[in-house]
Please model this.
Amino acid sequence: MRRTLRFLLPLIGGLALLAVIGYVILTRTTAQWFEKDLELRSQLAVESARTSLERHWTEAGELELILGDITRDERIMGTAACAGDALVAATPAFPGSVTCAYIDAQLAVAASWTGTADLATGAVRVIARRIVDHDNKHLGALVLVHDVSFLARREATTRNFLLAAFFILALSAAVVTLLAARFAWRGWTRELRRALSGDAADPADDFRPLVSDVRTLVERLVGEREEGVRAGPWGPERLRTTLTEHLNGERIVILANREPYIHERDTDGKVVVLHPASGLVTALEPVMRACSGVWVAHGSGGADRDVVDDRSRIRVPPGEESYRLRRVWLTEREENGYYYGFSNEGLWPLCHVAHTRPLFRTEDWAEYVRVNQRFADAVCEEVDTDDPVILVQDYHFALAPKMIRAALPRATIITFWHIPWPNAERFGICPWREELLAGLLGSSIVGFHTQQHCNNFIDSVDAFMESRIDRETTAIVQGRHRTLVRPYPISIEWPLSKLDDVPATEDCRTAVRRELDLPADALLGVGIDRLDYTKGIEERLRAVDDLLGRYPEFRGRFTFAQLAAPSRTKIERYRDLNERIETLAAEINARWSSGTYRPIALLRAHHEPATVYRYYRAAELCYVSSLHDGMNLVAKEFVAARDDEQGVLVLSQFTGAARDLSEALIVNPYDLTQATDALAVALRMAPREQRERMRSMRRLIAEFNVYRWAGRMLVDAAGLRRRERLHGRFAAMRANA
Ligand code: ADQ
Model:
C-alpha cells in the first residue's frame, strides 16, 4: 500500500499542478478574448451609428433615439453623448457616476479610452470614442458602458469545469494504477515464486540473475538460522562448539607476521607486555582465545627471546594462558627485505589506491621467498596431524599457502587477505604476479573483506594464470585442486572484553578533558590510527582546519585528538608522513589557538587499549578518513565503545566498514567541503538522531561479530574437507577396482 501511495501521490500532485496551470492560462486567455470582443462590439456599434450621429449630434431628441438603438446590444448597459464636459444626451440606464468631464479629460490625449468603473451593482467597462464629422470637426465623445458581470460568471463556470475534470482524471488514474500495479505485482510474484521454487524450468530473463542470488542467499540463511537456533548468538562458546562439531575439535594454527603480545623491557629493565596497534591482532586474538591452538609470528619485541622456551614458544595471554605463541626470529636483513621491503614498500602500496608508487626490488623479493619458507616450515613443525586447519594471515605470506601444501597436501588452509585486492591491471605491474597468485592458490579458501576484492582477485587469476574459474561457486580450479574465493567481512569481539577496564562514558569524558586541559563543555573529535599514508590523516586535519574557518561557532570550542601510533618508521615514506603531520598540526594550531586553546591534540604514541577506549567514550565524534582500507576496525570499535548510544561516526566511503555501517555519516575524504560539512552536522546532531544511528550500528556489530567471521570460514572449510574426503574415497575405490 505504501509503495502504491508513493507512486500515486506524485501522480495526483502532478495532475493537480497541471489543473492549476490550465486554470490560470484558460482564465487569462478567455478574459483577453472577452475584452477584445467588447472592443469590437463597441467599435461596430459606433461605426454603424456614425452617419446618424454626425447628422443629428445637435438634436437632443434624435440623438437619444440613436443612443437607444445602440443599447439594443444586450451587453451595452447605457450610452451617452458628451460635448466637451457637458452631457448632450444619455440613455436612462447610463450611470450618473461616469461624468462627461472625466471622459473629456481621458480623451485629451487619445482618440479612444477604455476603463473600468465600480458601480453599486458591480464593475462595468467604459469605452469612450471621439466623434469627428466628415470635415474633421470634433463633435464630442460617445460613451458606451458595458456590463461585465458575465466575465466573473464565466470564470466561475470554467473553474468548476476544471475542478470536476481534475477529480475525474485523478480518480481514473488512481484506479487504473492500482489495478495495473495489483495485476503486475501478482504476475511478478507468481513468476518469481515459480522460479525460486524450481517449478519454472526456465525462469524469465528478468529473473534469471536474481534467482541464483536469492537461492544462494536463502540456502545460506537457512543453514545459518538452523545453526543459530541450535547454538545461539555467535560468541567464544559457539565458535568452540563449531570447531568441535565441524572440525572434530581440531587445533587451529594461525600464521601472522604480527604477534598478539610483545615483550619489551621498560626503563627499569623490567619485562612489560605490549598489545600491538594492529587490526589483524584486534580481530584474531579473541578467536584464538576461543579456539586455542598455536599462533606463529615474528618475535619482534626487545625481550621476546628472554621469555620463550627452548623451542621459541610461550603460552599466552599472560595470566589467562589459553593458546601457544611460537616466535620466529628474523635477521635484520630478512626483516628489511621481507617485511619493510617487499611487504610494505611493494605489496602494501600495490593493494591500496593511495597514490604511493610500489617499490619492487629483486633482493627484497628473494628475502620474501626465503622468509615465507621459514614461516611455512615453522607452521609444519607446530601441527600434530597430517590434515590440520591453518589460518594464514595477510599479504606478508602470499607464498606460504603453496609451501605448506607441498609439505601437508591434506591440510585445510584458509588464507585471509586483510587489505584490498587491486584490479587486475594494477596487480599486473608486480614483476612476481604469477608467483604470488600461485602461492595463494595453494589455499583451500582465500578470503577478502568485500565481494569487490574477491572479484578483483578472480579477474587477476583469469588474466595471469592457467586455471578454470567456476563462477557458480566462485572457485578457482587447477587440476584436482580447488580454491574457494569468498567475502568474509571482518569484525570485532562482541561484547568487548577490553571495555571491562574502562570507566563509564561520563567518567571518560571528564578524565580525557582534564588530561587535554579542556573545559568540561569542550567538544571533542577523535582519530585513532597507525601513522600510515592510507589512513588519510592529513585530509582529516585539513577538514578540522576548514571546519574552524567556515564554522566560527566551533572556534575555541572544538578540539580534535589524534592518537597516532608510529608505524614502519624504518621506511622513508613513513618518516616523511610523520613530519608532514607534525608540521600540519602545528600550522593549524598556530592559526586557531587562543589562550590555552589548541584545536589539534596530536598524541603520537602507541596507546594501550584502555586509553584508546577512553578516548572513544569521551568524544562527540570519531572521524575515520582512510583513502583506502580493507575494513577499518577503528570505526567498529568506536561504535562498540558507545554503550551510551551517543556520538557520531564520520566514515570514509573507501573503507570496507562503510558497506556495513551505513548509519555513519559517509564521506569522501578527498572532498574537503563535504567532509567538513559532515563534521559540522555531527557536532550539531540531536541526541535522538545520534541514538537511532548508534543503536542500529551496534545491533549490526553485535550480530556480525568476529566470532561469526571466523565461524563462517571454519564452517566453509569443514564443508570443503568433507567434500575432499569423499572425493578421496571415490578415487581410492576406483583405483582398487
Ligand atoms: P590496520 O591497518 O592495522 O588493519 P585497523 O583495522 O584500523 O587497521 O585496525 C587498527 C587497530 O589498531 C585498531 O584495533 C586500533 O584500536 C589500533 N590502534 C590504532 N592506533 C592506535 C594507537 N595509536 N594506539 C593503540 N592502538 C591503536 C588491517 C587492514 C584493515 C583491516 C584490519 C583487520 O588495513 O583494513 O580492518 O587489518 O582485517
Summary: The chain has a mean pLDDT of 89.
